[in-house]
Amino acid sequence: QIIEYWESRIQQTVNPYLRARYAGLVWDFKTYVTKQKCSIDIAKQYITDLIANSTNTHRHSVIRLNQIKRAVDLSVKLNQVDLLNAAKRVLSDLTSCDDINAKAIWSAAFSISNDIPNSFSLEEQKQLVVDLETRFDFVNAQNEDQKNPWMLMDIAEMLAIFYNKHSPDKLGDI
């Protein structure tokens, strides 16, 4: 009965945060609880609302990143190319951070591309790697007293993940 209530609330509420929450609950639990297949329309609504919620700049960046990661993941699983592209556009806007110390933000797109297979094309991943290489060079070019070796190591580890799969000859460069 609670699943039916959540489903009815998806249609009744206009608040995208609540709608995403209800749709997410229905999507995650309906099949498990009722043994009935959940409508893909519920998942599409869920993804759409997650994307919309991720554009709200008043919310904390980590929350927004978690929502957009979930949107990317479901879009890939359900082969929803339009929603995947919309989620990646929002992710790109969200991760275009100039603060070199905000690694969790600017490295999120690369992390998602590795965590969720087929979420990014090889060309898109190569562009993410170019961004990482640029950040590595920026940190490495700083004066010795300002250089952050831990940041260099973190970026090098991310680059190594990509190089190991796609460019083993470049592993020696880092």
Structure description:
- The chain is an all-alpha fold and 174 residues long.
- Helices cover 72% and strands 0% of the residues.
- The longest helix is centred in the N-terminal third of the chain and has 19 residues.
- The model has no long low-confidence stretch (mean pLDDT 91).
What's the short story on this structure?
This protein is mainly alpha-helical.
User: What is the strand content?
Assistant: under 5%
Give the number of DSSP strands. 0
What is the mean pLDDT? 91
Shape: elongated
Helical/strand content category: mainly alpha
Note the total helix count: 9
Largest sheet composition = none
Low-pLDDT regions: none
Provide the succession of SSEs: HHHHHHHHH
What fraction, in percent, of the residue positions are helical? Answer: over 70%
Instruction: Report the radius of gyration as a whole number of Å.
Output: 19 Å
Could you tell me how far the N terminus lies from the C terminus, measured between alpha carbons in angstroms? Answer: 56 Å
